[in-house]
Amino acid sequence: MFVDLLLGLQWGDEGKGKIVDAISKNYSIISRFQGGPNAGHTIKIGNKSHVLHTIPSGIFHKNLINIIGNGVVIDPVIFEEEILKLNDSDIDFKKNLLISNKAHLIIPTHCLLDQASEMSKGIKKIGSTLKGIGPTYMDKTGRNGIRVGDLFLEGWRLQYTKLKNKHLNMINNLNVDISFNLEELEKNFFRSIDFLKNFSVIDSENFLFDSLNEGKKILAEGAQGSMLDIDFGTYPYVTSSNTTAAGACNGLGIPPTKINKVIGIFKAYTTRVGSGPFPTEIYDEIGERISKVGKEFGATTGRARRCGWLDLVSLKYAVDINGVTELAMMKSDVMSGINKIKVCTSYKQFNNEIFRMPFSLNPSSLSATYTEFDGWNEDITNIKDESQLPNNLKKYISFIEKNLQVPIKIISIGPRRDQTIYL
Ligand code: GDP
Ligand code: IMO
Ligand code: MG
Question: Which residues surround ligand 3, an ion (CB under 5 A)?
Answer without folding.
Answer: 13, 40, 299
